[in-house]
Amino acid sequence: MLNFENNLECESPILEMDDYIPFAVELGSDSSQLLYWRAGDGKLSLIEIGLKAENGAVHSVTLTSINPRNVKETENSIKTDLIETYGIPVFDTSNWNTDSSSYSDNFRDDFSINCSLVIGQDYLALDFCDVDKPSQYIRNKR
After folding, report:
1. Which of 44, 59, 81 is nearest to 8 (CA)?
2. How far is the C-alpha of 84 from the C-alpha of 16, rounded, in Å?
3. Are 21 and 62 in contact (CB under 8 A)?
4. pLDDT of 105-117, one tens digit each?
5. Higher pLDDT, residue 124 or 29
6. Using an 8 Å Cβ cutoff, are 43 and 88 in contact?
7. pTM summary value
8. Could you tell me which residue, 3 or 69, shows the higher pLDDT?
9. Rg of the chain over CA atoms, in angstroms?
10. How many other C-beta atoms are found inside a 10 Å radius of the C-beta of residue 57?
11. How far is CA 97 from CA 1, 21, 35, 40, 111, in A?
């Protein structure tokens, strides 16, 4: 699992949704060396989070596939009792070997994680089941 460190100032996101990829978000245009954390159940669900190698900031999030039984739609707006901040999450990437010449070292996989997707009136929420509950809510400009 990724370990949250802090957050950085917001960048304008680009959000794409279509019939084949549930959603893809790109934060900023700088795509220097990226590290990838991929998670899912190993069968029907896969999410890929691209992190900037120099600081661990989220660069992209792509939900490639999700078990249809784990998709919920609601007409409600998001409601949370969590502390809300604006920014881009930054994660600890110290366990990645960024000096390696092998491209495969840019990936960390965890295919034992179930997730669900909530599609709300004005938000998308991806819930990683069986992990600790979130302690804060980080919004971006969108």
Report:
1. 59
2. 24
3. yes
4. 889 999 998 889 9
5. 124
6. no
7. 0.85
8. 69
9. 15
10. 24
11. 16, 29, 10, 22, 20
